[in-house]
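Supplementary Note 3. Input sequence used for the single-chain structure prediction.
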Amino acid sequence: MSASDPGLAIPPASAVAPEGGPLVVLRRAVVFSLAALSTLICTVLWARLLAQNGLSGFDIAQVILFALNFVWVSLFFWTALAGFLRCWRGGMTPGLVYPSEPLCPGQLPQDIGAARAAVLLPIYNEQPARVFANLAAMYQSLEKAGWLAPFDFFILSDTTDPGVWIEEEQGWSDLVRRLNAQGRIFYRKRRRNEARKSGNIADFCRRWGKSYEYMIVLDADSLIGGETMVKFVRMMQANPGAGIIQGLPAMLGGVSLYSRLQQFAARLYGQMLAAGLNFWQLGDGNYWGHNAILRTHAFMKHCNLPILSGKPPFGGHILSHDFVEAALMRRAGWRIWLVADLGGSYEESPPTLIDSVLRDRRWLQGNLQHLRLIPATGLHPLSRFHMIMGIMAYLASPLCLAFILTGLASMAWATLSPPAYFPPYPTLFPQWPVFDGDLARRLLVGGVFMLTAPKLLGLILALQAGSRRTGWGDAWKLTAGAVLEHLYTILLAPILMLFHSGFFFDILAGRDSGWGKQRRGGAETIWAEAVQRHAGHTIFGVVLMIITATLAFELLPWISIVALGLMLSIPLSVLSSRAELGERARRAGLFVTPEETTPPPEFAAARALERSFDTHANALDRPVRLARGVDALLDDPQLRALHIALLPTQPSPDDPPDLPALAGARAKLELSARGYAPPPLTAPEAMALLWDAETLHRYAAVPVENT
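The predicted structure, written as discrete structure tokens, is reproduced below.
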């Protein structure tokens, strides 16, 4: 950790808040001790199995890799078990004060008082119709219930596509007019998306943060019910030591088979796992960057993120900013709560496997940056542990791959090296190689049980009689869906292992992930893309099968489980991306969640509003959209006046205009004005043009669509 990194090197004046008493210490001691004991027992048994014929260097490496992999499996198991017991008994988050006054439509509860909350929607090259429809549904949810007074909404754009920028302004104007929301919904476009989402939020804090006691942070695909937003504020009021309250978003709106599988699994097991985390982390939780409420003044005072020394991928702006913000808030004495039972909070799943792993690439890079932050002065031990858990969520893949490869190397060594049947000392009988099949089977059964049991426990909770069963549908179809999802996860695991391992070595080689636009909705994977992404996985699976069959045929049934997923990676990726298969599964009653059986009113309203917005421009390809957007701005005085009014009156000296691009745009517009047909505007030229009010006025009504 470099001492020059601001915000982390020097501890704040306030001390970390007390742990909460011996009960908290006891809970953590129980969970961590059980995880450590389980790992120790299984590692010793694994070492004993390998040592029956002497330990080679490969065997020692396998024992170490086994322990590193198994400790996280064990912690996952005991956390899930704790969550199962808490969900089975019911009850609220322990240690968190819940408001006692009931929440009634048409009347704001007294405990909100004069609190003001900003609802922040950071966007980056999104489809405005879908994003603004979600925002409109949230706004209407508050307005219809009479709870709108404390809330203002901010659309914080970091969009870099000029055509989308103009669509956003049109959409915002339409949104405000439809909802009669003047002075309640605001739009701001940054010239440079420095520090990405964290920088976007920081810019809001500098401009308007002092006016709001709380801020509810969203993602572009977030949807939160009005009742939940009011609950967020009330819980902050009831817990003055809380700095962040993180809701548990349920996935909703999945169309493809992949997204439906993800939202089904998240809904079936997510609340149980969150309850398990609550069992031992309590007010020392984590922040996921969205669908949460933050205490604004504490965030502004303590969560100034450092710019890490050096170049990306390990230096520069922190990509996974949320973990670090939670750690800084906790270091300053504020509590971080994860509330698993809040409800009314939703997000979307990536539509395809490839979209999901591309997002993982960025998260992996951001989490590896945390290696430099873990030793920072004054951090709470659990904040450091959260960072380690985030790293291990992806580092487990190269560790697992290394475990498999060392196993193959050990088999190759044993096959190619002649066994020594007679020891160096005199003996009448040879020493035959020994293999304890019973011990191997017990280890296998134990490992499979600890991996599978959490999913079984989640299914049991869903099948539980009474209100918990509501919305899951037929018990047999629910069970069938859980089994099919588990089988898909088994096939998916080795694919993710190779993806994440490749990303890890890619980062070690110094390649930056960047921050690309996320695909949403009905995107599908074509065969050519799948072949490009998964050809190496398929080849690796085939080679793995051949090596195993040659060197250790008796292990082929177990290795084939890994190899099968890899060899099927191309069709799995393509077929799981298909919306048609997702719809067939829905009609068959498979992978159905309670929110899908009875859609939340905000979700139904958002989808209806999305259809009512003009989405024609979203179907256009990028060059046509850009040209039509700039054309519309030059042709339409009202749209041009709106755009110019939204530009900053004084450009920041830290962010000068792109003069070469602006000169290029002016030259092409001048040619067009004289009747010539210059080349089309490039994206940088269009962007420079849109930031320059003088040029927009000068060349009003000059067509660029056909240039």
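Confidence is low (pLDDT under 50) at residues 1-7, 12-18, 615-624. The beta strands are 117-123, 151-157, 185-189, 214-217, 223-224, 242-247, 250-251, 292-295, 335-339, 345-347.
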